[in-house]
Amino acid sequence: MSKNNDKKKDLKGGNSKVTNLLPFKTKSLKEKKIETHNEIWEKMDAFSKELVDAFKEKSTREALSSEECWYIFYFRVMQRMQHEMSYPSFKFYTNWTSRQLLKSHKNFMNSIDEWTSDPDEEYDLFGRRKTSKNKTLN
After folding, report:
1. Does a structural domain hold residue 48?
2. Which helix H or strand E contains 53, and what residues bound it?
3. Where does the pLDDT of residue 71 fall: very low under 50, low under 70, confident under 90, or very high at 90 and above?
4. Phi and psi at residue 121, in whole multiples of 5°?
5. pTM strictly above 0.90
6. pLDDT band of 17, cuts 50, 70, 90
7. Does any domain span residue 49?
8. Number of domains comprising the chain
9. Residue 120 lies in a domain
10. N or C: less crowded end of the chain, CB within 10 Å?
11. Which residues on neighbouring strands pair with residue 123, listed in sequence order?
């Protein structure tokens, strides 16, 4: 009877090294959460924005002009992309990025009334012929 009592004491009151028991750990759902493609994209986008902001701060403190610093940075990023990707992927992403930048810049410039609001001239500052929105077609 004393042998059984000794075993029960070891299991209940003894330390884990003697009994070779591992502590049971529960993990919350947040720790087990699987990241989606969009969440990873947003995380990498936030990281790249931080990187660009840090580069901007550094480039304003250097003796080179800001344009030269940005050229060096852009060249190195494009060079690394060229080495890390296949040529079709590199070509696709560079063309896609150029189109996105041109479209967003065009929309931004069209949203500024100062650039397009002079009614006396036939052409706006971009060299485009102005069309009157008040004219009706017959």
Report:
1. yes
2. helix 37-60
3. very high
4. -95, 150
5. no
6. low
7. yes
8. 2
9. no
10. C
11. 129
Spatial distance between the Cα atoms of 1 and 6, rounded to a whole number of angstroms: 9
Query: Is position 74 within any domain?
Result: yes
Element (H, E) at 59: helix 37-60
Question: Which one-letter DSSP state was computed for residue 138?
Answer: -
Distance of CA 24 to the CA centre of its chain: 38
Give per-residue pLDDT as tens, 86-112: 999 999 999 999 999 888 888 887 777
Stated length of the chain: 138
The partner residues of 129 in beta bridges, in order of sequence, read 123
Residue 55's domain spans which residues? 36-84
Q: Which residue has the tokens 């060096």?
A: 72
Cα angle for residues 95, 98, 100 (degrees, 5° grid): 110
Q: Which two tokens stand for residue 137?
A: 């077609």
110: CB partners within 8 A, 6+ apart: 116
> Contact, 85 vs 93, CB < 8 A?
yes
The answer to whether residues 115 and 124 touch, using CB atoms and an 8 Å cutoff, is yes
